[in-house]
């Protein structure tokens, strides 16, 4: 089960009250949503979105929860179709859930032998296997550089293309092996696994993660009531930069603007990181619509 990250802080900033409506754009196992619903009873609704059907199926039934399997990049349309209004807050807890890593069997983890898939939604046509075996060397290098900030993107892309000539790269361990062969020896002794950035980059590319965030933030702001809160938890600098810049730009504009409530991002306490090490890279930013 996924442990919700920064739950106390999310609730403190969303500040849900009886009968208010909220959107949880990344419901996962529903940890944050259930905490919101406890405060918005008896009549407040939560529209809970996830791109993985398995996550939607995992969430406990609650008469005030509207579960929807969709890409949050289409937020305005999802909201229109589900006829929810007077939205007091929208939460994004970005990335993948523990289920994706541990149980999906879709190659999100570099520690287990699984097919190279990495899709949140099985309706998505693109997989990591397609990128690795069919994209050009230059396209792969660009993905690793831009989405993984990988220092050895060129070397890794070259190794992938060399290896796939004799045999397709179909599983996670084959990819890990290619990365290990491509990078200098010193890289293998570092604290983070040498393939971590490659896996992050492929996951972002498969799911269009940065595009999704770019697309949804303006929609989220315009869907909120005045005084409503936009709460975003990100897990790496590329996501965080998009959120930070969006907040900054809209804070300086007049129309449909916002006020930033977190000058510096909120990060988990040492105690939270001890209980849930996966929370260690989380950054929470909050803005209020004005
Ligand atoms: C970190 S988990 C959320 C965990 C959740 N807050 C909880 O407490 O259980 C992120 C979730 O966002 C979903 N997700 C990622 N990108 C998405 C997108 N573009 N649209 C909808 N859901 C998305 C993933 O499938 C994953 O379940």
How would you describe the overall organization of this protein?
This protein has helices at 7-14, 31-40, 53-58, 75-82, 98-102, 128-134, 137-148, 153-166, 172-182, 185-188, 196-207, 209-223, 237-252, 270-275, and strands at 21-24, 46-50, 65-69, 87-93, 224-234, 258-260, 283-289. It has 290 residues and is α/β, with parallel strands linked by helices. 46% of the residues lie in helices and 14% in strands. Helix 7 crosses helix 11. A 7-stranded mixed β-sheet has the order 3-2-1-4-5-7-6, with helices on both faces. The two termini are 37 Å apart. The protein is elongated, with a radius of gyration of 20 Å. The chain binds S-adenosylmethionine (SAM). S-adenosylmethionine binds at residues 2, 4, 26, 28-32, 49-52, 55, 71-73, 93, 95-97, 120, 212.
Secondary-structure map:
Elements: H1 7-14, E1 21-24, H2 31-40, E2 46-50, H3 53-58, E3 65-69, H4 75-82, E4 87-93, H5 98-102, H6 128-134, H7 137-148, H8 153-166, H9 172-182, H10 185-188, H11 196-207, H12 209-223, E5 224-234, H13 237-252, E6 258-260, H14 270-275, E7 283-289
Parallel strand pairs: 1-2, 1-4, 2-3, 4-5
Antiparallel strand pairs: 5-7, 6-7
Helix pairs in contact: 1-2, 7-8, 7-11, 8-9, 12-13
The chain binds S-adenosylmethionine (SAM).
